[in-house]
Amino acid sequence: PIRYKAPMPVRFKVPKGQILALPPNEPDIQLGKSLVAGAPHRIKAEQIDAGRRILRRYLGRKGDFLINIHATYAVTKKPEGVKMGQGKGNIEYFVARVPAGRVMFHIPSLNPMPGYVPNLSHFREIA
Asked: CA-CA distance, 92 to 77, in Å (whole number)?
């Protein structure tokens, strides 16, 4: 597969907005094992990184997997005890806005290494 660098989080304050659904004629499922979002969610960068670490631990260095979501949207929060008004708060963390049906993590083939039977129970640990 073609590897590309994840986009850098942009330090802009963005409105919360709605998570738009995937087009009905574009299936996101591919051959292999996939972890698909069942409902629209905002997933933190820490959660994506934890999933990446779990997959790397179970698949090892030679196991190949793809992460199809990137945390690029900034979420702001005001400090504790600040009254209403005085503008928008500071950037607290970054999230990925994931619509329902989007493949988040993908293992390209069922058996990426010949002679090795992968333990695919790690998808349950992420979910």
From this structure: 6
Give the model's pLDDT for residue 11. 79
pTM for this prediction? 0.72
Tokens describing residue 13: 């304050």
The answer to whether residue 113 scores a pLDDT higher than 60 is no
What percent of the chain stands above pLDDT 70? 77
Task: For residue 31, give the DSSP letter.
Answer: S
Looking at the chain, the number of H-run helices and the number of E-run strands are: 2, 6
Name the token pair of 61: 């260095």
Whole-angstrom distance, CA of residue 92 vs CA of residue 97: 16
CB 98 within 8 A of CB 42: yes
What confidence tier does 2 reach under pLDDT thresholds 50, 70, 90?
low
Distances from the Cα of 36 to the Cα of 21, 57, 84, 113, angstroms: 13, 20, 38, 23
Across the chain, which distance is largest between two alpha carbons, in Å? 62
From the list 66, 69, 54, the residue with the least C-alpha distance to 100 is: 69
